[in-house]
Fold:
Amino acid sequence: MKRFCWCLILNGCLLGLAVPHIAGGAEAKPTIKDIMTAAHKKPKELLKKVATGAATDAEKAELVKLYQTLAALPAPRGEAASWEEKTKTLLAAARSAAEGKPEAGEELTRVANCAACHQSHK
Structure:
């Protein structure tokens, strides 16, 4: 009987630890992969839409918010200063493009150089 009770208690504790991870929890923060997928991949392709001027105001705001979150995350690999510089530059370009500044779309496309960032930080 004692063994059965201990098994129930242990299972309850393990389940209690696992539930926030399974459910995603309210405090679950997006990962770099989540941000990159939302900003750059289909079906949204927010970067492409904002850079070409085809994005709605909501899409522009979403891209800026994603890049703000990205800039707040620590570098996964490589130098922190390089990560900070690249993410801050990307965020500034996204803000400029969202505001509709001339040639900001071209600048956004230029600074969103996947290979440069992946080489240093992925």
